[in-house]
Amino acid sequence: MRLAELSERSGVSTATIKYYLRERLLPPGRPVTATQSEYDEDHLRRLRLIRALIQVGRVPVSTARDVLAAVDDDSRDQHSRLGAAVEALPHGPRPDEADPATDAARHLATDLLRRVGWHFNLRIAEHSGAFHMLVAAVAALHRLGYPCDTAHLLPYARQAAELAVADLDLVEEYETPAEQVEAAVALTVLYEPVLLGLRRLAEAEESNRRFRTGG
Amino acid sequence: MRLAELSERSGVSTATIKYYLRERLLPPGRPVTATQSEYDEDHLRRLRLIRALIQVGRVPVSTARDVLAAVDDDSRDQHSRLGAAVEALPHGPRPDEADPATDAARHLATDLLRRVGWHFNLRIAEHSGAFHMLVAAVAALHRLGYPCDTAHLLPYARQAAELAVADLDLVEEYETPAEQVEAAVALTVLYEPVLLGLRRLAEAEESNRRFRTGG
């Protein structure tokens, strides 16, 4: 298909597609004349992922480029390719190493991973963005004096393990390894607000059960 | 205590405390001289909540003011006070009503709430920020053609119900109704990055289980 059709089918303007091509987020089409190129279904699928990252997930362009490079790296096995692609996503501010709460939070997070039996990747996990995200959040809770010890965190870790089963079930609805890696990245980002919205709705329901008086 | 001690015990600079006083986030102290006021433990606790909202949760000052007004409104029962305080938190961009995906997403979200048996607040929920957050996220998944129907969402809703039990257990560690409402708001915000970080770590573990090849 030509650029105009790619734009129509993807819902992305031709100007934006040209920008993604210039920024090397989208691979070039096959040249058919000096000024025109031909695009295919792979371009359409890639555009969908770019929109998920940039328009919905608000991932910066340079970060999106790193994520896509990891998605495309088929020299790795499926697991480490998927891990590298998710790792390239933004993970919020890094823990503040000057703060003593960070050290305590790191110990607590490591202990938690051991207790829930996430053994395989303990050494890898401790250098991952997701681990830093957890440590920064736990340190903030400690610094402000809110409850957050292993006993408090365990139920959340167990729920996270169940969520990951649902996440990977969704990923496995896709057939090819390339599509699965793309879906893993997109669904990690796109299901975050689903999860946070549902948690707040569930909190309202649970609060009603416990606290509502009268009417 | 005087301003200097409040600053030392809270870890918030006197300049920032004065700013919070001017912005009416922090109630004024009890005047002891023409230029000095006396602060108490309530001010310390309130400062902690303000930091949770503004410094960690990155909630805008005007939004924080609305949240705190709802926290302080003791004319309501505990459930609706807690609900109003969480409702005043930011919930991301509103769903785009011009997009046909939004209407379909709203039907799906309503159906989901019925199926998980969150009956009490269906009418209230449909006007809540949390519901709009869910609808906007589901609409984005539909628009981009990623899997997201009732069967996909049900496991997430069931996990959210379990998370809400953990959330409200934390809230009930506090004794007074006022402290419980404050904690509900702070913990809603502060546990979000805990949850998202743990989900990504759990995804890596689950991916290892399913996809890893070789040693």
Automatic annotation (TrEMBL), chains A, B:
Q: Which UniProt keywords apply?
A: DNA-binding
Keyword DNA-binding part of the UniProt annotation:
yes
Alphabetical list of SUPFAM superfamilies matching this protein:
Putative DNA-binding domain (SSF46955)
Question: What SMART domains has UniProt attached to this entry?
Answer: HTH_MERR
Leader peptide range in chain numbering: none
Please spell out the taxonomic lineage of the organism that makes this protein. Bacteria, Bacillati, Actinomycetota, Actinomycetes, Kitasatosporales
Output the InterPro entries linked to this UniProt entry: DNA-bd_dom_put_sf, MerR-type_HTH_dom, MerR_fam
Q: Which residues form the HTH merR-type domain?
A: 1-70
**Official protein name in the record:** MerR family transcriptional regulator
Q: What is the scientific name of the source organism?
A: Streptomyces siderophoricus
